[in-house]
Write a structure and sequence with these properties.
The structure holds two protein chains of two kinds. Chain A is mostly beta strands. In chain A, the strands form two sheets. In chain A, strands 2, 4, 5, 6, 9, 10 and 11 form a seven-stranded mixed β-sheet that branches. Chain A has a four-stranded antiparallel β-sheet with strand order 1-3-8-7, with no helix packed on it. The radius of gyration of chain A is 13 Å and the shape is globular. By secondary structure, chain B is mostly beta strands. Chain B has a five-stranded antiparallel β-sheet, with no helix packed on it. In chain B, strands 2-10-9-4-5 form a five-stranded mixed β-sheet, with no helix packed on it. The termini of chain B are far apart. Classes of the chains: A mainly beta, B mainly beta.
């Protein structure tokens, strides 16, 4: 298996623009997580899905952030409008079950908002 | 709320040395604890997963121990190599998908 695949790897955009980050989890995994990593705050859980259903989105910073999982093999994290403070590395991770067990991370999408 | 502390924050050792990374957590009611490594500009790679009922797990040169009652875990790396240079994160899980990430120990192994 290719592992968790994220795109784009790098995104540079201007404040106010819409940003869409994409994730393909490992086939057969039914839990998917979006994390954000910054130097100041470390890794923060934004949202996680189980069987394509959002279970906990309490970590989503504000209404500018939204996430979808239309099917078991694809998820998006959208920021609209983007702000400079959204600059971070966004990681997607997947696992076999809701009680995570081993968590597999993608290589991340580095977002820079100017 | 679970708080995770990793000591030391950074460690530099010569190649071949055995070393121990320490982790402490405040809420001992955990389901499991994972150790991850993160290379610069990369995602996290799971190294070892210890279930709450276990005391230790081993994988190659790595051995992780868990003392749940005292809220401590250690990662032992034997015969360190330059390729072990990375940041190591201790991640206890409390409740369904409540994973708490420490700030990590940045390890440098000098050839």
């Amino acid at each position: 298996d290719a592992g968790v695949i994220q795109s784009p790897r790098h995104e540079v955009t201007e404040m106010g623009q819409e940003v869409t980050l994409r994730c393909k989890p490992i086939s057969g995994h039914n839990s998917l997580f979006w994390y954000r990593q910054t130097m100041m705050r470390g890794l923060e859980l934004l949202i996680y899905f189980n069987n394509n259903v959002p279970i906990d989105d309490s970590g989503m910073p504000e209404d500018r952030f939204s996430a979808k999982m239309p099917n078991a093999s694809f998820s998006t994290l959208k920021i609209q409008p983007s702000e400079p403070r959204d600059s971070a590395v966004y990681f997607c991770a997947s696992s076999l079950g809701r009680r995570t067990g081993e968590l597999f991370f993608g290589e991340g999408s580095r977002l820079t908002v100017l | 709320k679970q708080e995770v502390t990793q000591i030391p924050a950074a460690l530099s050792v010569p190649e071949g040395e055995n070393l121990v990374l320490n982790c402490s957590f405040t809420d001992s009611a955990i389901y499991n604890l994972q150790w991850f490594r993160q290379d610069p500009g990369k995602g996290l790679t799971s190294l070892l997963l210890i279930q709450s009922s276990q005391r230790e797990q081993t994988s190659g040169r790595l051995n992780a121990s868990l003392d749940k009652s005292s809220g401590r875990s250690t990662l032992y790396i034997a015969a360190s190599q330059p390729g072990d240079s990375a940041t190591y994160l201790c991640v206890p899980e409390t409740g369904a998908n409540n994973l708490f990430f420490g700030t990590g120990t940045r390890l440098t192994v000098i050839p």
